[in-house]
Design a protein that fits this description.
Chain lengths: 203, 524
């Protein structure tokens, strides 16, 4: 019944005058294609930008800020994939960033980086090692150290390891991934370092 | 959050903090409050990286955490704060105009670091200033501290919530609400490091530092000051204020209004509809020193301002020589309307603008009435109305004559709903800024090789000049960059500057529209 158009001429259901077309007038064509792409009306050009000393200064500030934030420790670099050949120039292009140690009193404890389980084992051995210092046990330990390093991947120096382990108190409960790229970065958060520094402030 | 806002947030986070933080931040903005493990699982990043990203985001006040029952900590991102990052250069500039270089550097350090202890800020800023000063002169720490205190007094910087003395359960401490006034006094007890140069050691403060029991120490060194929400309102006042200059005819009236705004900076919150009433005597006393107008002239100006049809200034009482308020809501409304009008004019032409202003003034108009009042031929008027309708500047209001809403018996009226048009325009602004940033990044990436080359050449030239090379050698090095390459670099620089300037200007419009929308929403 909806298909019944009504005997005679088709009639609009609404007042065509209200929309602005008069009866019998040629209605605009139906558009059968998508609207034109951007940019649209080129009749009206954009208004020129504001210029002036203030604007120039803000512009300079903006560009400087953009450069500065890249050098801050808060800018987290994406870990690159290891390249087969390490380019000589890359070493000199790297920007050396200051370390940043967050104020752990203000952050939830779960955000603190955890030390790994594996270190708990060799840690006691190393402590004994430094205490005794005999050459016989040294070689065995060195071999063990090498094995460990291989397991945990490159990028970590043994001195830093020692420093970490001697002071490390926390045992890891979570099974973290072996992301050794980030292990180096973890040292930034080392609690012990932070406590040393805190000591420095108070003096 | 709308797609456009999320896109813009993602671009801003990427520029400031890198891709990992961007991924985590955008994920949090999209999905709301989430615990740590779920974030790591959903984004597919390792737990370490998520932790680091969250630390950075919390440090910069972009993410807050909440402890729920059973000790679960959930993290929530604040999209509006991320969008504020666009405005950092403007904040620094405002601080510079009000507090000169020292203020500028303090604000810059705080913005770059999120939060900092006062002692750290003072030290860094003083060192930076000392570097730029002539040889032999050094910056006094006391001066920097004074500027800092002034910034705190006018609410440019704010104290962060403190950690309570007693530790809470596992997940994390619950910070109490920030206390602004009381702890200001503690500021002065921050033990000063030895002053360079002009140093008289502050003996008294050193004694205090050593004399105090250990328990108190942590409180002093944790005096962090957090920057941004208040700079926002400051900037707002000074902005609305500069807009006023254009609306008021004379220098004097704009100066009076500016004084009133300055006086009510601290007392009014950023979204209040009116400022606190100020008496005419107070205004007279607070006028800037150079202004020599008599009391009667001031009173006359105030009366004229209050009677002005724009209704920016209103009279609220007669005590103290007349109490006057600034009607912030109205001011923002008229500024937003002016923005809309100018957009219509620039996009569609002055005739469209005439129709727009007409509908704005008359509130609701029929098709026929529009043609008559605007004195524009019917065909063109129709065309323009439909164009504006399709872009959502104008909307249709149906008024049915019969309960069955039959189209032939319904009035269709054109109207402008300022709030929704402002929202639409704001959304477009976000899109445009995102486009501008993307285009700038594209341009920079295209010419990356050339930029690197020019940087290397500059570095070589600088090092050679330092070691004392001849003119000829320098010439040779400079010629490593050929003339067409130089041309290309120039074009690139010009384009990047233009895109940056565009971003800054669109940000001004964003600021205006956001303030208007916020002010209107608060009233409802």
């Amino acid at each position: 019944m909806a298909g019944n158009k009504g005997r005679g001429r088709a009639a609009y259901t609404f007042n065509i005058e209200a929309v602005g077309f008069s009866r019998g007038e040629k209605l605009p064509d139906v558009v059968l294609k998508p609207p034109p792409l951007f940019p649209q009306d080129t009749d009206y050009k954009p208004v020129p930008l504001k210029t002036g000393e203030g604007e120039d200064y803000v512009l300079a500030l903006k560009q400087e800020l953009r450069e500065t934030v890249k050098r801050m420790p808060y800018f987290v670099e994406t870990p690159e994939e290891k390249q087969d050949i390490e380019r000589y120039s890359k070493r000199y292009v790297k920007v050396y960033k200051e370390e940043w140690i967050p104020d752990w009193r203000r952050l939830p404890r779960e955000l603190m980086p955890r030390k790994k389980c594996k270190k708990a084992g060799p840690k006691s051995k190393k402590a004994k090692d430094t205490g005794k210092g005999t050459s016989l046990t040294n070689t065995a330990d060195v071999l063990k150290k090498i094995e460990e390093l291989e397991k945990r991947g490159d990028g970590e120096k043994s001195d830093e390891e020692n420093e970490e382990k001697e002071g490390s108190k926390e045992k890891s409960k979570e099974g973290d991934d072996d992301e050794d790229d980030n292990a180096a970065e973890q040292e930034e958060y080392d609690e012990e370092e932070q406590e040393e520094k805190r000591g420095a402030f108070q003096n | 959050m709308t797609q456009a806002e999320i896109k813009l947030c993602s671009l801003l986070l990427q520029e400031h903090f890198g891709e990992i933080v961007e991924k985590i931040g955008v994920h949090l903005i999209r999905t709301g409050s989430q615990p740590l493990r779920v974030i790591a699982h959903d984004t597919g990043t390792s737990l370490d990286q998520v932790k680091k990203a969250l630390c950075v985001l919390i440090q910069h006040n972009l993410v807050i955490y909440q402890v729920h029952k059973r000790g679960v900590v959930e993290y929530e991102a604040q999209c509006s704060r991320v969008l504020r990052m666009l405005r950092y250069p403007r904040y620094i500039y405002t601080a510079k105009t009000l507090y000169s270089d020292t203020g500028e550097l303090i604000v810059e350090e705080l913005l770059l670091n999120g939060k900092m202890a006062m002692s750290a800020v003072v030290k860094k800023v003083a060192d930076r200033l000392t570097e730029t000063m002539e040889d032999g002169k050094t910056m006094d720490y006391a001066e920097v501290s004074n500027t800092f205190v002034r910034l705190a007094d006018t609410h440019f910087v704010q104290r962060c919530p403190l950690v309570p003395a007693t530790e809470n359960s596992d997940p994390g401490p619950l910070p109490p609400a920030p206390t602004l006034v009381i702890n200001e006094k503690d500021m002065y007890l921050v033990p000063k490091l030895s002053l360079i140069g002009k140093g008289k050691r502050r003996r008294s403060s050193d004694e205090d530092a050593t004399g105090e029991p250990k328990a108190k120490r942590p409180k002093h060194t944790t005096d962090n000051k957090e920057m941004w929400p208040l700079a926002y309102s400051q900037s707002q006042h000074s902005r609305v204020n500069s807009e006023f200059q254009f609306t008021f005819q004379t220098q004097t009236s704009s100066e009076i209004v500016r004084t009133m705004l300055r006086m009510s900076e601290i007392t009014t919150s950023s979204s209040a509809p009116f400022t606190q009433p100020l008496s005419s005597n107070e205004i007279f006393r607070s006028l800037p020193v150079g202004y020599n107008i008599s009391k009667q002239v001031l009173d006359q100006y105030l009366t004229l301002l209050a009677d002005d049809p724009l209704e920016f200034v209103g009279k609220s009482g007669d005590s103290g020589g007349g109490m006057y308020v600034i009607n912030l809501h109205k001011a923002l409304g008229s500024l937003a309307t002016a923005t809309l009008e100018s957009v219509v004019q620039e996009r569609f032409g002055s005739r469209c603008a005439r129709i727009f202003r007409l509908v704005l003034q008359k509130k609701h108009l029929e098709q026929k009435q529009v043609e008559d009042f605007a004195m524009i031929p019917a065909k063109e008027a129709k065309d323009m109305l439909y164009k504006m309708l399709s872009e959502n500047f104008i909307s249709l209001q149906e008024i049915p004559k019969t309960p069955d809403h039959a189209p032939s018996r319904t009035f269709y009226l054109y109207t402008v709903n300022i709030l929704s048009a402002a929202r639409m325009l704001l959304h477009r602004c976000y899109k445009s800024v995102a486009n501008l940033i993307e285009r700038r990044q594209f341009e920079t990436k295209e010419n990356k090789r050339l930029l690197e080359k020019s940087q290397r050449v500059e570095a070589i030239i600088a090092s050679m000049q330092a070691t004392g090379a001849e003119e000829a050698q320098l010439q040779e090095i400079e010629e490593m960059i050929t003339a067409p390459e130089r041309q290309q670099l120039e074009t690139l620089k010009r384009n990047v500057n233009k895109l940056d300037a565009c971003e800054i200007q669109v940000d001004e419009t964003i600021f205006l529209l956001e303030s208007y929308i916020e002010s209107t929403m608060k009233r409802q």
